[in-house]
Amino acid sequence: MRFLRRLAYLLRLRSHHAGLIDELAFHREMIERDLVRRGMSREDAPVEARRAMGNETIMREESRGIWLRPSLEALWQDATYTLRDLRRHPTFTLGVTLTLALGIGANAAMFSLVDRLLFRPPGLMIDPATVHQVYLYRTVRGVERETGGQYARYADLARLSTTFSQTAGFTLKSLAAGVGDGTRLRNVAVVSAGFFEFFDAPPVLGRYYTESEDAPPTPAPVVVLSRRL
């Protein structure tokens, strides 16, 4: 509780500083009025009042030091007491340290995952700042749902849109790949030919398929394999 009270006091220093400025302005104004009553002109009174008050910047710094010194000393005492108490109870200290380590590690891992999936652009993408992903939705019984895998919708969008300089369609599926017992469920991307033009990744072997091989109603049965597969 002492630590929290000290912390709250430090946070209130801003209001104390504003009050000090108002108080100095009040005293300066009172000196100006007294000088005017004694016969000094209203133009010279502010200059003389500031001279009589002295350097206000130094006064504010000295006042801030007076406010902070006891609080910082108390904060140091609280920190020293806490460290001594943790040293007396190593089991408790170890538990707190492990809890903090697990919490920080879990948050860091989650942030890294979200950052990679949602915020970072795909690797080797050309000019990712100008690339945008368009989602198609349809309403079924009053509920809006995302649609995917409909090539005709993509073809209409690519043909009729004048906003995009280039377009590509893609959808993700899980398909069985392999022979016999070696068959495994793989993540497969079904993409149009223009998809590869968004990336600076030429194929190591062979070539990417072309628009003519991609066009319905009988597109060529071609596939692009990753190096890992």
Describe this structure in words.
- With 229 residues, the chain is mainly α.
- The protein has 2 domains: 2-88; 128-214, no CATH class.
- 53% of the residues lie in helices and 11% in strands.
- It is built from 7 helices and 4 strands.
- It has helices spanning 2-11, 13-37, 45-53, 56-88, 90-119, 151-160, 211-214, and strands at residues 136-140, 143-147, 170-177, 184-191.
- The strands form 2 sheets. It has a two-stranded antiparallel sheet. A two-stranded antiparallel ribbon has the order 3-4.
- Strand 3 (170-177) and strand 4 (184-191) form a beta hairpin.
- Helix 1 packs antiparallel against helix 4.
- The chain is elongated, with a radius of gyration of 36 Å.
- It starts with a helix and ends in a 15-residue tail after the last helix.
- The model has no long low-confidence stretch (mean pLDDT 79).
